[in-house]
Amino acid sequence: MSITADLIRGHTETIILAHLFNQESYGYEINKSIQEKSGGKYELKEATLYGAFRRLEESGSITSYWGDETTGARRRYYRITEQGKRLFLDNRKEWKEAQVIINKLIQMEVNNDE
Amino acid sequence: MNEKIQRYVDDIFKDVPQKRRIAEIREELLSNMCEKYEDLISQGKSEEEAYSIVVSGIGDIASLIDDVVEVDRQSFTKTAIKNKHSFIKKKYLKEDDSFAEEYKEKISMSDKTSRISAAIISALWPLIVLIYFIASFSSDRWDVTWVIFIIGAVIQLAITSIINKKLKVGGIIWTSAVVLYFVISFSMNNWEYSWLIFLAAAAVQQIVRVYNIWRES
Residue A74 and residue B31: Cβ atoms within 8 Å? Predict the structure, then answer.
């Protein structure tokens, strides 16, 4: 599981961009959707999530604003920019290419000569 | 809003400087944690279970806070980066002041001391020239009185050393040379030779300098 978690963590920003591609959203909603889509197998830590938000915002891939919730704490909403959309499509393309290559590299007969 | 979670978040941010960006992360964290908590309760989790799930989901928030503080600091002054590690530790031990306030204070203090020493030194030299002429005309010993300028240079060195609170080797050498010069000159009345002490002092200073360079390499 640790390798899986590391692999996924390396794509945190792309995963967040995927969620924001078609709608604005906020931290908990994004994390909840990640949890649901992964069948409960993966969930981002709060710190990882905000770290990724910060980097994406600094690079101009997303923008943020505070919601005007009247009850309870305010939500911080995130919105993808055109640059963010391009970044997402590039990242997804690269991942698919890497996937094909890695599959070829590790696909072989496993011989147990013991 | 859940009070237990509120208290937990308060505790995380207790010793962190209250910057805008930090306050934003704090509010965002609190809001998301509370919503997750309510969600877990509505899914039938007990309050204790929900609380421990929410708290264990925070992750390495300290590193994130460090990163944000670090960026603030970089934009404030590059000098601060040199003190990075010791400063971060100090900052977390301190309860009240934020980093920037503390650092501004330091800078303004060194500004103040350098202004004071500049003022003293600029007043010093006209005074020395005045003393030189008075002494020379009244005693008619022009062959000796020029030494006043060397004394002036030593006084200046002493003032800057004292104000910067570090007595350099050069300061020690020149101060003792002046003291020695007067003691020898007055006691033996050999003013025509005793000024050679200053040449000796210059030689000693060079030797010390070369020794320091050799030791460092």
Answer: yes
